[in-house]
Amino acid sequence: MNAPVTTSVPAAAAEPRQYLTFTLGGEMFAVETLSVKEIIEYGQITAVPMMPPSIRGVINLRGAVVPVIDLKARFGAPATEVTRRTCIVIIELGAADEHQVIGIVVDTVSEVLEIPPSEIEPPPAFGARIRADFISGMGKIAGRFVILLDMGQVLSVDELSMLSSLSERQEPASLAA
Description:
By secondary structure, this protein is an alpha+beta fold.
């Protein structure tokens, strides 16, 4: 009569994920830490002519050419004003064999938070200051929301291909210097 009750809840689905939080224009955003390679101080960026305003230029990251995106400009706001707290978050995007390393300019980096899936709401259909497809979800942290970014969407396929060609074009010249 008292047969053991078994549950088949997948353990991986219930585990919290870690997110790096940062601010842009006074709003808090987050990206999954799995895609974050490192955080560096805002430094020398080489401007590349004829690029859209959201692409600040390229940096030399230990000999590799890394395109740098101004995330605030990408969201349609004025370019990020550089302060002593401005950082570049180095993100690795891609799947399978293709990886793209990109730097994103943020106002300040805050902290790493664990957010359980139960505390993540679907993105709003309207009302956000950025496009809905840029948002993977809304994380609830201590009574407030953090916008979880879908970096694959933020950096669209077209833009990624342009960044790849930018890296390939810049690499030989910058390494020779």
